Amino acid sequence: MRNTSPSRRWTLSPASHSAAEIEAEWHRMAERLKPYAGQTIDTIVVSGNDRTRRQTIVREMATRQGAPLAPELVKRDAAYLRGMGFFSDVDISASSTTPGSCRVDVLIVERPGLF
C-alpha cells in the first residue's frame, strides 16, 4: 500500500534532469491544475504506456475517479510514478467535461529496455 502522507520523501534519479528542474516542472503542473481543484474526476485516461498496464499505473496513484481533484495530490502522484524508475517522464493534466467535473490525463514515457 502506498504512503500518501504529505511528509513522504520522493527519491528522484532522472537521467537528464536535475532534481530542481523536476520540482519546478511539478510545481508548474500543480499550477495548471488549480482551475480544476475540487471538481469531481469523471475519468482517468492513461497514454504512452506500451508495456505497463493502465490499471497498474492508476493503482499506484492516490488520485481516484469520483474524488475531487486535488492539485497537490496529483503532483505527488507524478513524483511517485517518476520515482518508481519505470518512466522517464510523467505529465498529468486535466480538462473540463461537464460543469463541476473533469477528466485527468496521465501521459507517461516508459524507460526503454526495462522489460
UniProtKB/TrEMBL annotation:
Residues 39-113 form the POTRA domain. InterPro entries: BamA/TamA_POTRA, POTRA, TonB_box_CS. GO terms for cellular component: outer membrane. Coiled coil: none annotated. It is found in: Membrane. Pfam families: POTRA. It comes from the Bacteria. Gene3D superfamilies: membrane protein fhac. PROSITE patterns: POTRA (PS51779), TONB_DEPENDENT_REC_1 (PS00430). This is POTRA domain-containing protein. It comes from Eiseniibacteriota bacterium. The lineage of its organism: Bacteria, Candidatus Eiseniibacteriota.
